[in-house]
Write a structure and sequence with these properties.
The protein has 500 residues and is mainly α. 65% of the residues lie in helices and 2% in strands. The protein has one domain: MFS general substrate transporter like domains (Growth Hormone, Chain: A). The chain is globular. Residues 1-39 are annotated as: Disordered.
Length: 500
């Protein structure tokens, strides 16, 4: 078994993090002496934030990081990221149930993505100033409480507001990935990261499939009740077994560092813009696909369960993700070239899907497969490019800056894609938006070479071999997962020339 590795240079007030049993019991007994709702809420909070003795962090003797911890964190990421995707295959059903238009119902995924982006800014940097355990438990508990409103409300504005708010605290997947990268031992880190990434991908796939299938036979509300049950289950499991990891810097310092990272590193900005464009195509496809396949004006009119089965396309990302990392991105070595390859695959698929979609279901299927392959290749290459730019920077802050821009792209794809679909000509019009986004991404890729130190240009040439080699070792980026791996903080990343 592996011992948990230090997450980063974090300063703590003591070697052990977590309230002692005697103090917790005293606090609970004191709250029993008061009456009213405040005493009830304080007791609930005392239970949620109580740290069992086996979960307390002791720097001198940290708890072991075991395989079942890894499975638990992957399960937590998958069950919570599913919250964002239950609505995708049933947007047409929600529009009928809430008596609204396609443009109106498309606000649901738009607001959920906007809420997720808000959570990346407001919540994720808290991992650098307070223990991760109470952040995670607090987010899941808060989401579960408000999720009851999504299960029961018949008022569309209320459903929209709750969708936005619950998405803010659905940031557990972005907490789990960098967390595991810091906890796993170097020799097991690649497998641990891949397990969490696969858990997140599996959560998206299962959410789309089960939502479509369940809604075809019973009310869509049952899938939301199922989502509530999963969140409660994860809350209990994490409360029982998630150690109370340490923390470090201030909140404002963490936010300001993200701004400085974007100002300082041209490669980070370049990757953010290209990721934004890729995300536009991703959400534009998945949200307008529901309207294409359910609309009587096209030769489909599929029920929700058949639309949900399109989520099986996402299985390829789980099965082929190691292949993309090792044999596509890894062989090319230069991340920019892998990104360009992924963008071209996406562009070919989008053109095929846009042209063929209104007349044959083969078009959306081919587009979905190529879009998924592109999304994985580009995602791995982006992480390879950005996570080693500044070894001293926190994973949370680099991840937050990158994912924030990425989710702005998803918001744009959902909002603009559905608006164009309804107003300017349906599937092919929204497909034109995706084609334009990909052409712009290729332009951004072309104005700055892989070895250029400045913001624009091709300084250093374009060769594959004269570059920093990304090694699967401590202090490098794991090629299969694309996640930066920090070694001892005293070491700096070295430039390695790849020999012929």
């Amino acid at each position: 078994m592996n011992e948990m590795q230090p997450l980063s240079p974090r300063k703590t007030a003591s070697t052990q993090i977590g309230t002692s049993p005697s103090k917790d019991l005293a606090a609970t007994s004191n709250s029993d002496n008061s009456d009213g709702p405040s005493s009830v809420s304080s007791r609930i909070l005392a239970i949620i934030f109580f740290v069992p003795p086996w979960c307390r962090w002791d720097a001198a003797n940290p708890p072991k990081f075991r395989t079942w911890h890894n499975v638990l964190f992957a399960l937590a990421g998958g069950c919570t990221v599913a919250n964002l995707y239950y609505n995708h295959p049933i947007l047409n059903v929600l529009a009928q149930d809430f008596h609204t238009s396609q443009a109106g119902v498309s606000k649901i995924p738009t607001l959920m993505q906007a809420g997720y982006a808000t959570g990346l800014v407001l919540i994720l940097p808290l991992g650098d100033m307070m223990p991760i355990r109470p952040i995670t438990l607090g987010c899941i508990g808060f989401t579960a409480i408000l999720w009851i409103g999504l299960c029961t409300t018949n008022i569309f504005p209320s459903f929209l507001a709750l969708s936005y708010i619950t998405a803010i605290t659905t940031v557990t997947p972005q907490i789990m990935l960098p967390l595991v990268a810091g906890l796993a031992s170097p020799e097991n880190r690649a497998v641990s990261i891949a397990m969490v990434s696969s858990g997140n991908a599996l959560g998206i796939v299962i959410a789309r499939i089960t939502s479509g299938v369940v809604t075809s036979f019973i009310s869509w509300r049952y899938i939301y009740w199922l989502g509530l049950g999963l969140q409660v289950m994860i809350l209990v499991l994490l409360w029982l077994f998630m150690p109370n990891y340490p923390f470090g810097k201030s909140y404002m310092d963490a936010l300001w560092t993200m701004v400085l990272l974007l100002r300082k590193h041209a490669i980070l900005v370049q990757c953010c813009i290209m990721s934004l464009c890729t995300s536009v195509t991703f959400t534009c496809y998945w949200t307008t696909l529901t309207f294409l396949l359910s609309s009587p004006q096209y030769p489909y009119s599929l029920p929700p369960y058949k639309i949900g089965l399109f989520g099986l396309i996402g299985i390829t990302s789980i099965v082929l993700n190691p292949f993309y990392g090792k044999y596509v991105v890894g062989k090319l070595r230069v991340p920019l070239y892998a990104i360009v390859l992924g963008l071209c695959i996406n562009l070919v698929g989008t053109i095929i899907g846009t042209v063929v979609g209104p007349i044959s279901i083969a078009g959306p299927i081919i587009q979905g497969l190529l879009l998924d392959a592109s999304f994985q290749i580009v995602g791995i290459a982006h992480r390879m490019a950005i996570y080693y730019v500044e070894p001293g920077a926190s994973r949370n802050r680099i991840n937050t800056a990158f994912m924030l821009v990425t989710f702005f792209g998803q918001i744009m794809g959902t909002s603009a894609g559905n608006k164009i679909y309804e107003t300017y000509g349906g599937w092919r019009a929204s497909g034109a938006l995706s084609i334009g986004a990909l052409v712009f991404a290729l332009f951004i890729a072309g104005i700055r070479g892989p070895h250029e130190k400045r913001w624009v240009g091709w300084g250093g040439g374009w060769g594959v071999k004269d570059t920093k080699e990304v090694e699967e070792d401590a202090g490098r980026v794991d090629i299969e997962s694309g996640v930066y791996i920090e070694e001892d903080n005293s070491r700096e990343s070295e430039e390695v020339t790849v020999q012929s």
